[in-house]
């Protein structure tokens, strides 16, 4: 019998909810809604509940057909208890999503980090399928990564492994949202690129990107791609600067972890191929020759659904973790 689960990718700007056939990774139905500007724990919880109800209604599935709910959140999580410990982008702290969802829907619910679930998705049915040791890196509002080792996502001693966005690339440099200075995320995320573009425009620099911008919209990856296609000097300069910093981070991963593969995803990677190609070429050139000669790069294959698919396998991942702990 097919095994159906609901996967939820909870982000700083959107909530993507999908009904997934775990047997083949197919997303049968999906619902996307904005998290909104005014975010707090109560509104986030209500939007998740609403998404699940709408998904079931649209798909004509009965709640009894769903085996589990998996949620990936952008922040620190207690996987065992299902608590979102801290998510600054959502204005949430110590939110017990597992208890709240199980109380509402009577379905086992599991919680993971947003990049963790994307890594699980790519490992099961995406670019990482068939690879034992690889790293997933997603460039978006921030920069996050997940580490796959021997078919499992590595969490680390405190459950926070993979925070590549917060390696220091410029000591005492730009302030980062984490409270530190000089983090990679402050130089190479889409948010950082947007801030650099807006800062340059305010100082009087000209750019064709102003023709694509709207007052109530952020600068999107597609806008950046259009400007680059026009060979816009400002956008090219800022994008290549971000690429240089990102390639430093990738070279560090190649040297330190020596993975078989690095999978890259996120809006900027998907939309701007020149940014992706330039970054991986630079990374290989900067890394040590031996690991650089073997490293492979791939774009994430599941697109927006990497996290939705991966979230449906959080139950399996946590069962494996508990089994391995009991045997050690």
Annotate the secondary structure layout.
Blueprint: E1 4-10, E2 14-21, E3 26-34, H1 41-59, E4 66-73, E5 76-78, E6 83-87, E7 92-96, H2 97-105, E8 109-113, H3 114-125, E9 133-139, E10 143-149, E11 152-154, H4 185-188, H5 190-202, H6 221-229, H7 233-257, E12 261-265, H8 267-271, H9 273-286, H10 289-294, E13 296-299, H11 306-311, H12 314-327
Question: Which short descriptors sum up this protein?
Answer:
five-stranded mixed β-sheet
Secondary-structure element string: EEEHEEEEHEHEEEHHHHEHHHEHH
Quick one: how many beta strands?
13
* Overall geometric form: globular
- Helical content stands at 40-55%
Secondary-structure-based class equals alpha/beta
Task: Report the portion of residues in β strands.
Answer: 15-25%
Amino- and carboxy-terminal Cα gap: 33 Å
What does this structure look like?
It is a single chain. The chain is 41% helix and 23% strand. The chain contains 12 helices and 13 strands. It has a 5-stranded mixed beta sheet, with helices on both faces. It has a 5-stranded mixed beta sheet with strand order 11-10-9-12-13. α7 crosses α9. The longest helix is centred in the last third of the chain and has 25 residues. It is globular. The two termini are 33 Å apart.
Short précis:
The protein is an alpha/beta fold and 328 residues long. It has twelve helices and 13 strands. The chain is globular.
